[in-house]
Known about the structure:
Elements: E1 8-16, E2 26-34, E3 51-56, E4 60-63, H1 66-74, E5 85-86, E6 90-95, E7 98-103, E8 111-117, E9 122-130, E10 139-150, H2 153-157, H3 173-190, H4 193-207, H5 209-224, H6 226-235, H7 240-254, H8 263-279
Antiparallel strand pairs: 1-10, 2-9, 3-4, 3-6, 5-8, 6-7, 7-10, 8-9
Helix pairs in contact: 3-4, 3-8, 6-7
Amino acid sequence: TFRRGSYVIDVSYDITNNTAAPQAPYAYFQLARDAKAVGLQSSFAPVAYTGPVIYNETDKYKKVEFGELDKLAGDASRKPPFTGKQDNGWIGMVEHYFVSAWLPGEKKSPREFYARKLDGGLYAAGVITQAATIEPGQTGRVTMQLYVGPQDQDAIAKLAKGLDLTVDYGIFTVLAAPLFWLLQWLYGIIGNWGWAIVAMTIIVKSVFYPLNHASARSMAKMKVIGPKLKALQEQYANDKQQLQIKMMEMYKQEKINPLGGCLPILVQIPVFIALYWVLL
């Protein structure tokens, strides 16, 4: 069942029991795709994750790499990287801007998640649920929601717990998430993503201005004492230990932190990596 303006699809099976005994059949809800990355790829830049993902209270949000499924296919005794039998959670496939996910619902009920390698270069991820017992001659129904659409964080967060985590922020999620919130807020005011990015960059650079200023002052001082350092290196060329002592004495006398020029830059690196992932 499709609904106008919604990326959520209701999938239902009507099951008629034509046997002489009660039946409680199992329903398989599966997604399958190849391992090809989507969009333009660059060897010089990170790319968003593509592949199966699973969320439950035991494992939380977990990516199931295609490579891991290859290993599982080659070794039947290998333990899967997630807990299969659960009473909560969902499973899906993600690629850069989009996600497809089976959503059994927030109400706790028995379900079994699986992910495996198929023939023909395909990979599957799905969930198995059991229908209520159907008496002979009766018809039962199994229903589950399927989301197929963009990774709109506000929209998908309302559908299932943890579904918004499919947005890939890389290793600096704790920094990227607030940056994205700031970008959205600026877009709401400006109404243009390009100028919103410019405004956010100015704000971020302004926040780091004191660090950049301190770094510039430190490098300027290092430049001033450059000739003195060179003289010390020539004087103590054969005594490295004494050279270090004299250099530290000079830094102390001139009130210079030798790391003052690079530390402020190092502090900013994670923020700008996070910013890159936000824009990605």
